Amino acid sequence: MEQFRRLFAFVRPHRFRLYLAFVAIIVGSLLGLAGPYTLQFLIDAVFQQNNAALLNRITLILVAIFALQSVFYFIRAYLLTYVGERVMADLRIRLFNHLQGLSLSFFNERRTGELVSRVTNDVSTVRALVTSDISTAISQALTFIGALVLIVITNWRLTLFMFLLIPAVMAIALLVGRRLRQLSSRVQDQLASATTVLEESLSGIRVVQSFTREDYERSRFRDSIEKTFTLAMQRLRLSATFGPTVSFLGFAAVVGVFWFGGREVLSGNLTAGQLFMFLVLTLTIAGSIGQFSGLWTGLQEALGATRRLFEILDTNSDISESPNAVALPRIQGRIKIENLTFAYLDHPEDLILQDINLEIQPGEVLALVGPSGAGKTTLVNLIPRFFDPTQGRILIDGYDLRQVQVRSLREQIGLVPQETLLFGGTVKENILYGRLDATEEEMVDAARSANAHEFIMALPNGYDTLVGERGVKLSGGQRQRLAIARALLKDPRILLLDEATSSLDSESEGLVQQALQFLMRGRTSIIIAHRLSTIQNADRIAVLDDGRLVEVGTHQELLEKNGLYAHLYRRQFKLDGEPTPPTHLETRETEPAEPPARRRGNLFSRLTGS
After folding, report:
1. What is the DSSP letter of 426?
2. pLDDT surpasses 80 at 327
3. What share of the chain is helix, strand, coil (3-state, %, to 5)?
4. Is the pLDDT of residue 608 over 60?
5. DSSP state letter for 213
């Protein structure tokens, strides 16, 4: 009942249409009962009264009844379909909005395909509950009650005889329904797993093909779909057995009613027309019971889907705002990290960062270096509050990040990652993502400052050129320059660069470095650095090792200390002669660009929702 209450909260804004639909359902159901009731007079007019005029009048009345019934059925179907589609859209929007507000830790623990399945398949399952299932349930309930009243009034003995089979039907419905609910939930879970395999395979299609793992992926997806099929067939067998069993019991009751009613006609307790009406109403009641059995099946499926949807909606973000959180004013960019320790919630014993103390002055460029797994990216992710420290705190211009509004914080922070994510629209749309209300002149200025304007104008449609999913039609250097233009348009006070040039060739790196120099001008910048050219441009260098801050100083100071930084430096350059070209300070795999032949969202829709 709690799931129903929460689900129908989405229906409440459309209750006026729902009320009109209920009126149409009631009138249509009453007209559905009026037809069989009127039929008894038509039969008696023929077989007992031999009255042709009465036969004609009753025939016209029946035609009018069925015509009106069709009109009200149309009104019912239209209004309920509208409400159902609107609720499905609202629910998907609510889920998407909620997902947008969850912290990164939520997405780290869940696979994208599973979430896609929840927003598509599960919401579609719930749709039937608030459209056809509501209509059918109310209509059949009214029909059942109305037919029951009519047959009781007509002949209570025949009615009592008819209801001997009802307890057996109800018992079967309850027992089988519980099992159907379990199977339906398992089918949806397995379908989510199959969607995950689909998403991973398509998103990494270049890796799949480069390793010639097409057959492996086909096998993986086929096995997942086959498991879904097996569970679906188990559900189908149970449902298919359930329906015919109920139908058999219903029609057995009809035969019994016909036999018992025939004896009542012979004894003079019923007319032929009343027996015919009774028989029609008995079929109506049997049909209602059969409809309820199908509704029970659908109800179990919908309950399983709503449970999973509300599990997402009930998930709270790890990053929550204090009730007294203040809007962060325009900042200078002073960052102070005090006694900071961090571990992920699912592994609290595994400390990623330990007792970090660091202060960065406004406009300073700080480079973070260290071996893989030292905690550099994690430290950078804590500044925009993608995560919160386990212990300690971070202050910006004296404001504790936990005491300021998250939006006002992130609006003043720019992030340029190693692997730039571009959306599948145009170049213009991707740059304007930095500031949606920017003018075209401001956008072009940002592109010029990022060394991007010339290559953009060389594209087939200039700024209106589609970049493809994740920017697949552009080179790595071009994608990075678009990301820099996007960050420039945002005009952040604090800039976070996560290995922004590590995967570029020398020519692209030079262009990106020029753009980065312009971007960092006058801004507090933190760079996760692996190339000497980037490190030498930093005011200071902070060295992390195994989650601890082990060294801080300028390039020359750290070389003189002869510590970890000097060791990393010597690994990059051979000091016994001319320096070799800059290489990574540490080995790091770079995921290749992914060239989807089609938009993956469309393929998900074809393979899961259609």
Report:
1. B
2. yes
3. 65, 10, 25
4. no
5. -
Per-residue pLDDT tens digits for 244-270: 776 676 667 667 777 777 887 788 777
CA distances from 512 to 369, 456, 472, 483 (A): 20, 15, 18, 10
pLDDT digits (tens, 9 = 90+) for 441-457: 988 988 888 888 888 89
User: In the chain, what is the greatest distance between 2 CA atoms, to the nearest angstrom?
Assistant: 122
Across the strands, what pairs with 542? 368, 552
Sheet containing strand 391-396, strands side by side: 353-360, 335-342, 391-396, 399-400
Cβ atoms of 402 and 393 within 8 Å: the answer is: yes
Distance in Å from the first CA to the final CA of the chain: 30
The residues spanned by each domain of the chain are 2-313, 335-412+492-604
User: Token match 């059995």: residue?
Assistant: 293
Q: How deeply is 97 buried, as exposed, middle or buried, from its count of CB atoms within 10 A (0-12, 13-18, 19+)? A: exposed
Tokens of 556: 């020359």
Q: Which CATH class is domain 2-313?
A: mainly alpha
Query: Where does residue 104 rank: exposed (0-12), middle (13-18), buried (19+ CB within 10 A)?
Result: middle
User: 472 near 480, Cβ under 8 Å?
Assistant: no
Out of 1.10.10.10, 3.30.1330.130, 1.10.150.120, 3.40.50.300, the CATH code matching 335-412+492-604 is 3.40.50.300
Report the DSSP pairing between strands 540-545 and 548-553: antiparallel
Q: Is residue 415 classed as helix, strand or coil in its secondary structure?
A: strand
The helix/strand/coil state of 584 is coil
Q: Long-range CB contacts (< 8 A, 24+ apart) of 448-453?
A: 449/485, 449/488, 449/515, 449/518, 449/519, 450/481, 450/482, 450/484, 450/485, 450/488, 450/515, 450/518, 450/519, 451/481, 451/511, 451/512, 451/514, 451/515, 452/478, 452/481, 452/482, 452/484, 452/485, 452/515
Beta bridge partners of 336: 359, 395
Q: CB neighbours (10 Å) of residue 249?
A: 17
Paired tokens of 95: 């889920």
Contact indicator for 4, 24 with CB cutoff of 8 Å: no
How confident is the model over 89-128, as pLDDT tens digits? 888 888 888 888 887 778 877 777 778 878 887 887 777 7
Helix (H), strand (E) at residue 360: strand 353-360
What's the token pair of residue 407? Answer: 């939006």
Residue 280 in tokens: 């029609």
CB 594 within 8 A of CB 210: no
Amino acid letter for position 253:
A
- Find residue 543's DSSP bridge partners: 369, 551
List Cα–Cα distances, 179 to 175, 301, 311, in angstroms. Answer: 7, 11, 22
